[in-house]
Amino acid sequence: MSNLDLEQLREKVDAVNLQILSLINERASVIQDIGKLKEKQGVDRYDPLRERHMLNLLRENNIGPLEQKTVDHIFKEIFKSALDMQEEDHRKALLVSRKKKAEDTVININGETVGAGNPSFIFGPCAVESQDQVSKVAEAISGKGLRMIRGGAYKPRTSPYDFQGLGLEGLKMLKKAADQYNLAVVSEIVTPSHLEEALDYVDVVQVGARNMQNFELLKAVGQIDKPVLLKRGMSATVDEFINAAEYIIASGNDQIILCERGIRTYEKATRNTLDISAVPILKQETHLPVFVDVTHSTGRRDLLLPAAKAAIAIGADGVMAEVHPDPAVALSDAQQQMDLNQFDEYYDALMKFMKQYEMQV
Ligand code: PEP
Ligand code: MN
Fold first, then answer.
1. Entry's SMART domains (predicted)?
2. Tens of pLDDT along 280-309?
3. Which of 261, 270, 295, 332 to mutate to test the pocket of ligand 1 (most atoms within 8 A of CB)?
């Protein structure tokens, strides 16, 4: 074969490549139209019967020289690329998606603008245990000029024999302490049936890690007119976390704060593994404020400060940590709550850190 022949054949291959490119792009745009139709009709994007039919048709018409299994392989890839593209379009269309809304969602909680650029802080005991307990913590929080207090009244405990929380009575105590010190109440609700009674006492409804995929609860908090602090499930992927938030926004409530609280891994040095990279991913993918709960992610008092610094440095909109007047006798999470002195030291150190890098509260 002369060099000229080779050149001509190569030109032919280039031309065929371009034809294939143009055809698979044409195919992709038809698939996009199909995707839009399916979305409107609420039909699943992947249809195995349809895929089988297309493969059969190709088999019947394959005159070679390509072997059938090669043709199957190539077309499976083409089918998959179209499906990936539809998934991507679908993700961009999510209401929580940054592609859908470019600006940050800013939530006003008791005069505190959450998500506006400066970190916010939520402190308070793991569980509400007594009026005196929550009042002491509320006083310490308000002494720092902060605006929110947390405390669990309905506690989702791993064991049914562990302290289950004081329920509505606990919420009333928390609200009383919060009112006295002009704080907003952040508290977990575990079932839609508690929501109505709780709303008189709660300013921010927390959906806990164990309930991140309690879809009925997500839909219920989607119908209220109060901010929701949604915690990441302990074995939830970022994608599942984003979809849980989508449940809330799709039901009408866009005041959502995402909270990374560590995920379960094989690592035992910490209670959970703080997935710090989830913070910038969630900030990129969604327009929602993102918090980091340093208490439940690390489960270690000595790691609360470095984890909070990391959270702020990586762009978190806020940090949550647990504070109890006497952690040694706390009814839950005794290992990891800060006492009031440790709280002072922790907050001072965090403020110093932020000042050093010219960040503001
Ligand atoms: C909590 O914040 O009180 C709590 C129980 O945390 P999580 O749902 O993240 O375990
Ligand atoms: Mn706790």
1. CM_2
2. 999 999 999 999 999 999 999 999 999 999
3. 261
